[in-house]
Amino acid sequence: MCQFQSLRPRGFSHLPMALLMLLSLLQLGFAFPVPETRSSSVLLDPISGQLKVIEGWDPAAAAWANLTDTIPETGWAFLELATNEKYNDSVQAYAAGLAEAAVSEQVNGSVCLRTLVLDPDWEGGLLRFHFPPTSASALTAVSLFPNWQVRLALLQLKGLEDSYNGQVAFPRGRFSIAPFGFLLFQLGGDLEDLEAALNKTQSQQVLGSGSCSALIKLLPGNQDLLISHVTWNAYQSMLRIVKKYTLPFRTSARSDSMIAGRVQTFSSYPGTIFSGDDFYILSSGLVTLETTIGNSNAARWKYIQPEGSVLEWLRNIVANRLARRGLEWANTFQRFSSGTYNNQWMIVDYNAFVPGKAGLTEGVLTVLEQIPGLVAMADRTEHLYKESYWASYNIPYFQNIFNASGSLELVKKYGDWFTYDKSPRAQIFRRNQTLVRNMDTMIRLMRYNNFLKDPLSHCQGCDPSQNGENAISARSDLNPANGTYPFGALRQRSHGGTDMKVTNSQMARDYGLIAASGPTWDEVPPFQWSTSPYSNLLHMGHPDLWKFPPIRVSWD
């Protein structure tokens, strides 16, 4: 069972809009005035060979799930999902989806999932990307990529979908998933780039819009290594779940070896089977996280092709399950890159980190960046130990990625805001990371937004000159609606830092973390739907006032 401890305040989108609307409309039990706990077990009927879901815990079950809703009190719900290794992997995966859906459904049984109306041309393009024709190159990608883990991920999603539809039937052989049901929830990041690649003029992408801040901080004397991530997203996305999956799958259909990442803790959302932020603590000893770098070079969209590629959300899941080391993760993830959901990934290997050791051990930090048609990766451990930190803030690090992504052209047009070393967050991280001495000061930095007083939050060409976007945890809603801004990310928006997660070498062993939900309120007013300029936006199931302190999350 999940346990959480409230921590005293210390004074301190990345999804396309169509998907945000769906996330707001999917109600999975988050409107209760008091904490609600639900549990379920999935049993295999020995006569029919089919699975059935029951309430409560049964030791003979193929899967178990427990959900504790404390969103009114903490801003988070907590899901624990586990499967029984005595069953074959396919049964485990499908049962996992059934179990999660059972505990996540609203108490009165009414789950609201609206149908998204898509442009027919855009719809056809999306179908081609996720269900490519069986050409030679497409078949090669399927056969060479770890397709057993892909199948298990899709089976889990199938279980989630079937439970929602009330049509539980374990699929034997080939199966299908509705392209615009729960599958769409997994595609949030990929859709951002598919939308641009398919030349849709109504793209919701905002120039310069940040999708997350991240910091990996080596404490003085190398006593500990802290890892933190702040999601930047539209405020409509703030129905949040911390999930712990225990999925003892085999590495392949013909293997008895267990996957390295069979236990995972991650920040997530209703209806999704991976993080999407992304932030994971894995049983392999790895912690994986990313910030989005995007692509501003229209000439590179031609490299996004449906054949011979696997979308990012699946490569993400597969790499997290199979990899034991950072370089192995990067090599797995880069294979058959779709060029969609283009991020800077950081893979931290706690197996290679020795607290208090003066010298470095290769492999502590691996960094990977992806844009359409190009992937760069390198061991950045030496950089981490030399500088004592690695910061990530939506700007490419590798020079070839920076140039090819169109970032150089943005610098020429808009100035230092788009540079790797002189952007506002780059400078704030460089200045404030020296103040990090422990977990409390790390949290203070990751929730930092003092834009009205901080000279590094100055916005060239803006009126007013100080901007809520220019901080580690953005508050774009606090920018005046009638201001003057050189590009879209700097204007007033229902967008900003929507959480904070942090772990260290000790907590990660037990999949623990400290988490804060909602926009920062340390040096700025807390966000409140009813008094904000966005009270008319859909936000069913949300608390009105988002003023939650960080909590310590641990698991029995």
Automatic annotation (TrEMBL):
<dbReference type="GO" id="GO:0004620">
    <property type="term" value="F:phospholipase activity"/>
</dbReference>
<keyword id="KW-0325">Glycoprotein</keyword>
<dbReference type="GO" id="GO:0005576">
    <property type="term" value="C:extracellular region"/>
</dbReference>
<dbReference type="InterPro" id="IPR043040">
    <property type="entry name" value="PLipase_B-like_dom1"/>
</dbReference>
<keyword id="KW-0443">Lipid metabolism</keyword>
<comment type="function">
    <text>Putative phospholipase.</text>
</comment>
<keyword id="KW-0732">Signal</keyword>
<comment type="similarity">
    <text>Belongs to the phospholipase B-like family.</text>
</comment>
<dbReference type="GO" id="GO:0009395">
    <property type="term" value="P:phospholipid catabolic process"/>
</dbReference>
<feature type="signal peptide">
    <location>
        <begin position="1"/>
        <end position="31"/>
    </location>
</feature>
<protein>
    <recommendedName>
        <fullName>Phospholipase B-like</fullName>
        <ecNumber>3.1.1.-</ecNumber>
    </recommendedName>
</protein>
<keyword id="KW-0442">Lipid degradation</keyword>
<dbReference type="InterPro" id="IPR007000">
    <property type="entry name" value="PLipase_B-like"/>
</dbReference>
<dbReference type="GO" id="GO:0005764">
    <property type="term" value="C:lysosome"/>
</dbReference>
<keyword id="KW-0378">Hydrolase</keyword>
<dbReference type="Pfam" id="PF04916">
    <property type="entry name" value="Phospholip_B"/>
</dbReference>
